[in-house]
C-alpha cells in the first residue's frame, strides 16, 4: 500500500487495518504454527505496508501480544442458567467451541505465548486471567447463594479448563459433548 | 566459524555442534519466548555458522521440532515404588521438577509448538505421546495386577498432567508438593 492509496481511504481505516492485521496473524499461526512468520509476511497477508505495522505496534512481539489480548478479551460472557451444573456445562461447552473453532488453537497458542514473552506479556496474561477468574468466581458465588455446594475456582481451571486446553494444544481433538459433560460431572 | 576452523576441529564435532545448537534454542526460548528469534541468532548464540544450521536442519522449523523431540524423549523413566499412590506421586513430582526446571517451560512450549507446526510435527508429537501413554499404562497395569483400583490413563493426563502443564504455561508457579500430591489424591 503506498501513500496515495492510503490517502484515498475513507475514515475507519485504522480500525480496518487493525482487524486485517489481527486476522492475518491468526491465519498465519493456524497455517504455519506460532513463531513461523515475519512482520513482512503479516503485512503482505493483510495488504498493508511493513511500515504500518512497525509504526503502530513497534515489533512482531507487541503485535502478537495485542492480538492475544484482543482475542482473549472477546470471550463469551459467563452463563447464568439457574443451576451450577447447568452453568458449568454451558461454560465448558462454550470454551470448547471457542478453542476448537477455526481460530481457536491459534488463540490458545497466543495465550500460551503471552506468558513466555517477557514481563509485559506475563502481566497482561495475569490481568486477563484475574478478570476471568473474577467472573468465574461470581458464577460459583451465585451457586453458593442458592445453597448449592460449589468447587473452588482453581478446581475449575485445573479439572475442566486445563484438560480441554491441553487436548487442543496437543491436537487431541475433537472434544465431544460426553467428554466435556464428564469433566463437569466429575468435578461436581 | 570458517572452513579452516571447522577443518581443525577434532572428532565428535557434529555431536558437540548439535548440543550447542539445541542449548542455544532452549536458552533463546527461555529468554525471549517461543518464535522470537531467527536462525542467525541461534547460530550466533551457539557459536556456529548459519550455514551449518541450514545444512543440518534445513529450516528453523525443523530445528525446533528436533529440539522438542530430543528433549521430550529424554524424560525420566516411570517410577516403580510398589504402590499406585507412590508411583503417581513420584511420577507427578518428577514431571513437576522437569517442567519447572531451568529449561522446563521452554521444553513445554516446544511440545505445544510441535503440534501446531504442520503434519510432520503433529505426527511426531502423537508418536511421542503414544510411547509415554504406553509407559504410563504399564504403571497402571502393574497396580491392577496387584489388585489396586487404577484410573484410566487419560484421567492421569487430564487431571494430573494437564493442570501442571497449564499452570507452567501460564506462569502460575511454583507447583508446591501439597498441590501435586493433592492432584494425585483427588484422582485416586
From TrEMBL, chains A, B:
Residues annotated to bind DNA: 38-57
Gene Ontology molecular function: DNA-binding transcription factor activity; transcription cis-regulatory region binding
Record-linked Pfam families: TetR_C_11, TetR_N
Protein name from the UniProt record: TetR family transcriptional regulator
Keyword Transcription regulation belongs to the record: yes
SUPFAM superfamilies (UniProt xref): Homeodomain-like, Tetracyclin repressor-like, C-terminal domain
Gene3D superfamilies given in the database record: Homeodomain-like, Tetracycline Repressor, domain 2
Amino acid at each position: 500500500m503506498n501513500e496515495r492509496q492510503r490517502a484515498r481511504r475513507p475514515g475507519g481505516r485504522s480500525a480496518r487495518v487493525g482487524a486485517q492485521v489481527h486476522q492475518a496473524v491468526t491465519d498465519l499461526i493456524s497455517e504455519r504454527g506460532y513463531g513461523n512468520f515475519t512482520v513482512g509476511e503479516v503485512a503482505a497477508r493483510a495488504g498493508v505496508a511493513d511500515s504500518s505495522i512497525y509504526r503502530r505496534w513497534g515489533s512482531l512481539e507487541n503485535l502478537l501480544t495485542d492480538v492475544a489480548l484482543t482475542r482473549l478479551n472477546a470471550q463469551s460472557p459467563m452463563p447464568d442458567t439457574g443451576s451450577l451444573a447447568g452453568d458449568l456445562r454451558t461454560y465448558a461447552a462454550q470454551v470448547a467451541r471457542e478453542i476448537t473453532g477455526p481460530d481457536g488453537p491459534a488463540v490458545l497458542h497466543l495465550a500460551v505465548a503471552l506468558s513466555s514473552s517477557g514481563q509485559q506479556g506475563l502481566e497482561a496474561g495475569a490481568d486477563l486471567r484475574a478478570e476471568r477468574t473474577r467472573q468465574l468466581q461470581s458464577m460459583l458465588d451465585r451457586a453458593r447463594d442458592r445453597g448449592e455446594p460449589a468447587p473452588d475456582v482453581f478446581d475449575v481451571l485445573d479439572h475442566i479448563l486445563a484438560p480441554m486446553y491441553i487436548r487442543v494444544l496437543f491436537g487431541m481433538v475433537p472434544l465431544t459433548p460426553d467428554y466435556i459433560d464428564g469433566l463437569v460431572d466429575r468435578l461436581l
